Input
Amino acid sequence: MQARFVVPFLGVCAFSMVASSQPTALDPKLVGNRFAPLTWEKMTEAQQTMTRHVLDGPRTAMGGPFNVMLRSPTMGDLAQELGAQIRFNSSLPAPLREMAILMSARHWTTHYEWNAHKAVALTAGLDPAIVAAIAARERPRQLSAAEAALYDFCSELLTAKRVGDNTFAAAKAALGEQGVTEVIFALGYYGLVSMLLNVDEYPLPDGVQPELQALR
Output
């Protein structure tokens, strides 16, 4: 009698485990241009894994570079995880973090990145006059000590590819060694994002016009 009871019971458990292990289809609503938007059904297992990791993290959507990153899902997954740390777990105050991201977007003239992070920067409290000056490739007139140190550091690194001793010392005094390092991470990651978007010629949302003038 016990054997008759245990066998069907184990069968039900095994069936439940198999059924629950089946992946649920997702609709990541990807957008692309030169890289055609992928759909869940056409993704490889590795691409589906990266998609789950993105959507299970702090992000709620996959707009931007992820459609291109999915073409190399192992590298893309590592990159998006780094991006999440920079965006959501940085030691930098949000206005300074977003200021660095905007400077990267301006350097690369990446319209989608600029449009997305301009909104985030203003919501975080970055002065609109600073945003406007960065868009015009001008040094903002009124900056706090930390903003000035960050602006000079980012500007010098992006244009000269190095920073001088005085620029480094000012950034270290204002942001600390961890802060300086995380600024470098932000410029590097969002430079990568900008390249992905620019190569794809990624479109702006409907009704949105480019704000950045092409660099001479």
In short: The radius of gyration is 22 Å. The chain has a mean pLDDT of 91. DSSP finds nine helices and no strands in the chain.
